[in-house]
Every structure is written in structure tokens, then in C-alpha cells.
Amino acid sequence: MLMDVLPEKVRDWTDVLASGAHVWQQGRLAPGQLATADGHLVLLAEQLEKAALHHSLLILDDEGIEVEVSAVKVVAGRDLLSLRLSAWSPLLKSRLQQVAQGWDLACVPVLPSAAQPGLVLMDMDSTAIQIECIDEIAALAGVGDEVSAITRAAMEGALPFSESLRRRVKALAGADAAIIDQVIGRMPLMPGLTELVAGLKQMGWKVAIASGGFTPFACHLQETLALDAVFANTLEIRDGKLTGEVLGAIVDAEAKANILVDLAHEHGIPISQTVAIGDGANDLLMLAQAGLGVALHAKPLVQEKAPVCLNRLSLEGVLGLLQAH
């Protein structure tokens, strides 16, 4: 089957590939499977077109990698094309991303299986929700510019997270604690969050939050979405005012990575069946620790280091990755 025969929209390939998996050989697709696979490439988009496969195959052919087209699916309203690769290397990600025009991709040695129990641990601010809660509190307290600048430096890795958090919280000293409820009342969920959580629950997976933000917001999400666990920092409040202090140990990068391991152990889940999602430098250790680390609309440093980056899709893309087999 020549590439020209395939419809332009990938979701229309279902009938064409009804006979099962196909391998790419000498410029055409033929029914068959790879004897062994050492990597996976998943292409995702709101509407995926065959140009995504064409551009990817040019690079894979250049690398001498054999390709099996193993699945075409629509998950949470998004298209995905799943390929098995005869070989994998860390350099493939950057090469494939250079030609990605309008689609996201994951090029990894292994993928977690939706058919087995698993765990998703995600950051909260700018990951599960669309805002940085401390910036919103600071804006209402009249110190928005000062706090936002520190937040930006921390997320880009220019400032240690614990130091940045204490500096930002210190700036909130004396603010009315009622501001917290105001921010909760207008806290926008990240697109795809509800679809991701619903899909994970249907698969029997655990889902939790590990946040460098604060407990009132994390607990609100836990109650709203029936999350299995949340971990966040505690703001000290006295006489209805923020004191400018954080109580207890700070949930920093090391804490997030440890939480992932501890939760997996608690539920008897192998690390290979864990997924971590985040956007800032404070999430990098957690992303590296997980079986699959996903950077969501992330800062440049995180884009460079994360195993998988979602820039066009949102959290529903993670559900697609888990159902790509």
C-alpha cells in the first residue's frame, strides 16, 4: 500500500488498516509485525494528518529504524497514531520534534500499559490548573509583580524552589486569609483534566497531586475530582491573616520524586507503570523518576530535559499516551 492511497486524515485509516498491524517497507505499508520492538513513537493531534507519519518516516528511515504502524485511535476526541520501532535512542526525540508541525509526539523506549494498574502523579499550578495560585493571592494582596517575578525565576530553574517559596510567602505577610477562598472560587481547571481523571479511574489507576503550592487548593481539587491523594504546602494563618510563613517541610523537587516512589510502593505499582506530569524545573526529578515523564506546556529548560513534551494538546494527551497500545 503506497502512502498516496491513505486518506489525508489519520482517523479515516481504520478501515484501511482493518487487517491489523502494518510494517513500513521500501516506501509502502504492508501487513505484518516487527519481530521485536525496542521503542515506541506516538503521534497526537486534535486532527492528525498523514503528513505527520510521512515526516516521521523520513527521519526513521534515515536512522535505519524499521517501523510498524500498530494502532490508530481517537481518545478523548484527539487522534493518535501508534508506531512500534525496531530501535530507539535519546536523540530521536529532538530529531522528530524538529519536524513536528501541528502535532505532539512521544518517542520512548517503553510505554506504561493501560491494561495494568498504574499511578499518575501531577503538579498542580499550571498543570492541573491554569494558574499559579500564589501569584493570584499576591495580586489580590497588592504584591503581584514582586511575587510573579520570583515564581518565574523558580519555574525556569534560576532560583532554588524552597528559597523562592519562602520569599514569595514572606511577601504575603499580613494579607487577609479570605483571599484564598476568592482564588479557589475562580480557579480554572487545565483543559483535559476531567477527561484524564475519568479515564484513569475507568482504567483502575490511581491519580494524585504533588504540588509546591498550597493545601487549600489541592484539597479542593481532591474533593472535586475524587483524587486518591494530594500533597502540598501549608500556609500559616493567625487571626485570619497570613503570617508569611510555611509550616512543615516544603514540597520541593526531591519531595515530589519521593512521593511518586512512596505512592507506587503503597499501592503495589511498579515504577514502570507510573506517569508524572509537570511544567517547571521543580518537576524535573519527578519526571525523571517516573516510568513516563510528561512536560505539559512547559518552560524551556523542562522542554529540553523531559522525556515527553505536550505543547499542542493538553492533559487529554496523557490519556492518549496510556491507551496507545
Automatic annotation (TrEMBL):
Q: Does the keyword Hydrolase apply?
A: yes
- KW Hydrolase (keyword) present: yes
The molecular function GO annotations come to:
hydrolase activity
The first-level EC class reads hydrolase
What does this protein need as cofactor? Mg(2+)
The EC designation for this entry is 3.1.3.3
InterPro entries given for it? Answer: HAD-like_SerB, HAD-like_sf, HAD_sf, PSP
Source organism superkingdom:
Bacteria
Q: Which UniProt keywords apply?
A: Amino-acid biosynthesis, Hydrolase, Magnesium, Metal-binding, Serine biosynthesis
Q: Which reaction does it catalyse?
A: O-phospho-D-serine + H2O = D-serine + phosphate; O-phospho-L-serine + H2O = L-serine + phosphate
Family label? Belongs to the HAD-like hydrolase superfamily. SerB family.
Q: What is this protein called?
A: Phosphoserine phosphatase
This protein's species is Zobellella iuensis
Per the UniProt record, the lineage of the source organism begins with: Bacteria, Pseudomonadati, Pseudomonadota, Gammaproteobacteria, Aeromonadales
